[in-house]
Design brief:
The protein is an all-alpha fold and 310 residues long. The protein has 13 helices and 2 strands, in the order ααββααααααααααα.
Length: 310
């Protein structure tokens, strides 16, 4: 007599078990503990102090004493004066210009330098050198180039046009600083785009050439689809870069002429360290931090989505 044994079918994990498995800590998690501690000390604690200062009345007279709680009064004062609203508008224009020029310029340079050769290596080295220079040095060089008697105006007047107030007109100044910021981020974007383009199989370009595809058709149907996953992450990084730009504005225009280049981060600096209204400056800085945190969340979600697909 034989007894038939049957193996019970394997149970599929329920939603609760799957959720628990996702929540289970990785064995490598303890290695991240030092980084978490350092971030907590040098990032989280200052942010908490900044938030506390933004809802308090803080000036040079009571900086080392107890701060009086004023609620949202600093935020309301900033918007009531018009300074915060104007700075938000200027920041949006500035970030938009930096992002568009940085992304298009980076992709165009990467498409031109996607081939491997000595000349592309030399150009990439020069771009990395320009990118690695400290912003104070870059900003000082561009300040001389865009001065009334600088190289840019020499070229403009040499072409028969009148002199341009690149850094001394309220409209030209914001555009000039935005262009210089975009110029500074183009080398980084080029390196990232080029790494994505080098992953394309060479046979795709050979097949396109046999079919008589033009350069624009290669860009549209081969290169752009290949860099699309990279573009989203790079777009977020470029927006964050443009939003937190401070060095070039400080060196080239110091927020002027007037308030023409007072973006949100620079306005917070002026309010806190020039006018010594630390509470008002902290409230402006909190708005800037909130926007950067929002972009950081979007960036983290994009990275996780890309890892899931990979």
């Amino acid at each position: 007599m034989t007894t038939a044994t049957t193996t019970p079918p394997a149970r599929r994990p329920g939603p609760g078990q799957a959720r628990k498995r996702r929540r289970r800590l990785s064995p490598h998690a303890p290695f991240a503990l030092p980084a978490v501690v350092v971030l907590g000390l040098f990032s989280l604690y200052p942010l908490i102090q900044l938030l506390r200062m933004s809802v308090s009345d803080v000036s040079t007279s009571n900086l080392g004493q107890d701060w009086a709680f004023v609620g949202l009064q600093n935020y309301l004062d900033g918007f009531a004066s018009g300074a915060t609203g104007d700075a938000l508008a200027r920041t949006a224009i500035f970030v938009l210009a930096v992002t568009i020029l940085g992304m298009i310029g980076g992709f165009a340079a990467a498409a031109a330098l996607r081939t491997k050769g000595w000349w592309s290596s030399v150009l990439l080295s020069l771009m990395v050198f320009a990118w690695a220079l400290p912003p104070v040095v870059n900003g000082s060089v561009w300040k001389f180039l865009l001065a009334s008697d600088g190289l840019a105006n020499s070229i403009v007047t040499g072409l028969g046009f009148s002199e341009r107030p690149f850094l001394y007109d309220q409209y030209w100044a914001l555009g000039s600083v935005a262009v210089v910021n975009a110029w500074a981020v183009i080398p980084f974007n080029t390196l990232v785009f080029r790494a994505a383009l080098l992953q394309i199989d060479r046979e795709q370009f050979e097949a396109a050439a046999l079919d008589g595809a033009s350069r624009w058709q290669e860009v549209r149907h081969i290169m752009l689809p290949a860099v699309r996953p990279t573009s989203l992450v790079l777009l977020i990084l470029t927006v964050v870069y443009g939003f937190r730009s401070f060095d070039f504005i400080y060196v080239m225009t110091y927020g002027g002429p007037g308030t023409a280049t007072n973006t949100l981060p620079f306005l917070g600096y002026l309010q806190a360290f020039t006018r010594y209204d630390y509470g008002l400056g902290a409230s402006t800085s909190v708005l800037a931090v909130a926007m950067v945190l929002l972009l950081a969340v979007v960036y983290a979600r994009s990275i996780r989505r890309e890892e899931t697909r990979g």
